[in-house]
Amino acid sequence: MFLSIIRMAAGLTGLVCLCLSCAYALLAVVATAWRKRERPHQPQPAGPAVSMLKPLCGAEPGLYANLRSFCLQDYARFQLVFGVRDSADPALAVVERLVAEFPHLSIDIVVNAQQHGANRKVSNLINMLECARHDVLVISDSDAFVGPDYLSTVTAPLQDETTGLVTCLYHSVPARTRWSRLGAMYVNEWYMPSVLLARLFGNREFASGQTLCLRRQTLTAIGGLRLIAHHLADDYQLGALVRELGREIVLSSYVTTARQYEPSLGELIRHETRWMRTIRALRPHSFPFLLITFSLPLAVVGFALTAAQTSFSAAGLALLLICVTARVILHHLSPTPDNVRRRSGLWLLPLRDLLICWVWCRAFLTSRVTWRGTEFEVDVHGVMRGGQL
């Protein structure tokens, strides 16, 4: 009798796991497909003058092509400000090449090692702001690659006075390593679908360092960048401050491309642990429930549990097949180029989902993250401590 109760409980638990994994996988597919149907923002090439801020650290793979794409904007008036902390930074050679290639562009270079907080990127941006001449600011990460209509598209929503910040989704294009492909799948097939699903249910808090576009007066009204100089999730914190002003965060229809380069498994895990630790700091109460988003591992566990109760096995198998099908559809909906998708193959899906489970578990066990080769301690509020100030 006792064993029968145990088997029944295991079977019911398995069905719950399968239902949750199926529900998430199907909703992620719906959210991703729905985004493709949304009406795009109309580009405004003759919009207000813009200062684009590009904080740099090292000559990462593809840096020249990434930065060059920002020089090729179909936009009337814009300034580019590149910033580094060290005059020996190899990124400077890339910037100097662009200055020589585009002599007609307004390009400024800031070399300043002054730190204003543990977040070195934000410190770099604070130093760069002194050279920004225009009232519309666009902050963008160094790994972003864009088309010529990027600037005219992301600045368009600022015509509405209720808009405080414009941000972008992005998709990741990997380098030719298996670890880079796995890293790109993290972004394209887990992180971005999760963002879209949250938006489908009304969440408007997403802000990405790939694009942060705002008016200078908005930045001044929130107290400037110094307020986020110690935060790991600087982009999210900037968005939170904008929301506190009663302004909206608008998700642009423009989708940028991020170059994904992970030279080793260790680098991939350190990178994703930092991202997961960031999510844990931002969402401490809901973070444990991210387990539901790891659809394949959860479905497999659920199916194994239903085997304990033979009357549930048929339903368990059907739900498992639904979950696997939805996961494969999500893989094919991701915006990765076809040649990259063929190289990655479906066989990477279970490995990708198992790895994300492992990174999620690690985020519970550590408060330390590695960023650009430096370790930092991160408290429960996402505040960074460490590094040399």
Sheet/helix structural class: alpha/beta
Radius of gyration: 22 Å
CATH architecture of the largest domain: Alpha-Beta Complex
The CATH first-level class of the largest domain comes to Alpha Beta
- Counted beta strands: 11
User: Which percent range fits the helix content?
Assistant: 40-55%
Mean pLDDT: 89
Describe the protein's topology.
Blueprint: H1 2-35, E1 50-55, H2 63-71, E2 78-84, H3 91-101, E3 106-111, H4 120-129, E4 136-139, E5 144-145, H5 150-154, E6 163-174, H6 178-200, E7 212-215, H7 216-221, H8 234-244, E8 248-260, H9 265-282, H10 295-306, H11 313-333, H12 338-344, H13 348-365, E9 368-371, E10 374-378, E11 384-385
Parallel strand pairs: 1-2, 1-4, 2-3, 6-8
Antiparallel strand pairs: 4-7, 5-8, 6-7, 9-10, 10-11
Helix pairs in contact: 1-6, 1-10, 1-11, 2-3, 9-13, 10-11
Description:
The protein has 389 residues and is α/β, with parallel strands linked by helices. It has two domains: 2-36 and 285-385, no CATH class; 50-281, Spore Coat Polysaccharide Biosynthesis Protein SpsA, Chain A (Alpha-Beta Complex). It has 13 helices and eleven strands. The chain has helices at 2-35, 63-71, 91-101, 120-129, 150-154, 178-200, 216-221, 234-244, 265-282, 295-306, 313-333, 338-344, 348-365; strands spanning 50-55, 78-84, 106-111, 136-139, 144-145, 163-174, 212-215, 248-260, 368-371, 374-378, 384-385. The chain has an eight-stranded mixed beta sheet with strand order 3-2-1-4-7-6-8-5, with helices on both faces. Strands 9-10-11 form a three-stranded antiparallel beta sheet. Helix 1 packs antiparallel against helix 10 (295-306) and helix 1 (2-35) runs parallel beside helix 11. Residues 338-343 have low confidence and may be disordered.
